[in-house]
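ugh ok so i messed up the first submission bc i forgot one of the chains. this is the corrected input, ALL of the components this time, i swear. 420 residues overall. if the numbers dont match what u have on ur side tell me asap before i send this to the collaborators (the ones from the other lab, u know who)
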Amino acid sequence: MIWEVFRQEEPGDYHQHVGNVHAPDREMAKQFAQIQHARRMQTNSLWVVPQEEIGEVDAEDTSFGGTTDKSYRWAMTYNDIDASFAEEVADSEEEQREAAEKRSEAQS
Amino acid sequence: MDIETVKERAGPREFGPADDMPEEYRRAATRMIQFHANSEVMGGYLDKQFTRHAPSLDRKLACTAKVQDEIGHAQLLYRAAETLGVKTREEMLDELANGEGKFLNCFHYPVDSWYEAPMIDFFVDGGAMRRQATLKTTSWTPYAHAMDKVCFEEGFHVKHGESILKELMTSSKATRERVQETFETWWPRILQFFGPTNDESHHNDFAQDVGLKTATNDELRNSFLNMYVPKAEKYGLEIPEYPRIFERDDGTMAIREDDLDWDEFWTISKNDYEGSHEQIGTRRRRQEAVEWVRQSMDDWEASGGTTPQAAD
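and heres the new structure output, hopefully the right one now
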């Protein structure tokens, strides 16, 4: 059976999907995951998950983020307001701007 | 792990559900995250009023989106609190409904006019973001992860709040006066948002020692003053004479905390203010009204609606 592998580089990071392994049980899957996905990469922790336990919904099933214009809920919309006075507000706006660019790239 | 080891190892995102944390840490973290989650819920309830009063469709949509965000943040935070194994989400929601759950002072005061929207959406949310940004480096990883998403979304709330403030303060003289009046009512409450001074704060030392908190109440309040006083003045709001604000030798601002009404603050923190009963009651009635949804989900799950497959 196939196990999806998620690797965490440093404590506190998110576990990121890095690939999968074939193994008959969880113990073997953990061993294979170490060898294939953590041997030469900085790793703090690994998760192995049976592939059939993962629920998927993709861009064919749904329109992520909806189909209506939701510009009112993004910081960039209020562009007559300067966010630079507070670092955390400026950071949030920057993250939102990057996410918006990725979304529009994905849609084009 | 014993408490001394926790204090030695304490650092950003150092601990998680796989660690064997002492009871004292788990209780302190639960108290802090539950308080935060409750505040998201109660803040969302105040904003509900603004949707009704919003003067345009765009503003209404933005207010609705904000309420949706806040309730979502509460869910993330209850989830993070659950990972400590002290209380379940149901217990925490019940505590909020029956008046045992604690939440931010600003959300105990009823709101009834649109002039109050920028007080909550700009100043209180701005203060909240100040604090939340420092919690991205809290020692309990699930809490820090929740802050990643919360901070991502909050930027819109603060900017929208400032946009409302700007609109009101460039409007008629009567409107500007109403905003100034509202500001004078809210300003002391906003300054109390960061809680009591360090020496009055019951939990501060422990929370800092184990890395749950990374900035003190005073530090947060003073940095808030440095950023938000100039903003208030930019739009023509006058900072009230009391509580007195003073400039320190290094040019940063601080407040004479004795000028604030701490009796009212401590009454509120016990959920004993007149507004507390009203706000908590509203929340409880909503919670009861949608009991059938939770019930039907539980029933569906119990009847085998989901079948978690055996992994191996």
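quick check: Chain B has a mean pLDDT of 92. that seems consistent at least. The beta strands of chain B are 245-247, 253-255.
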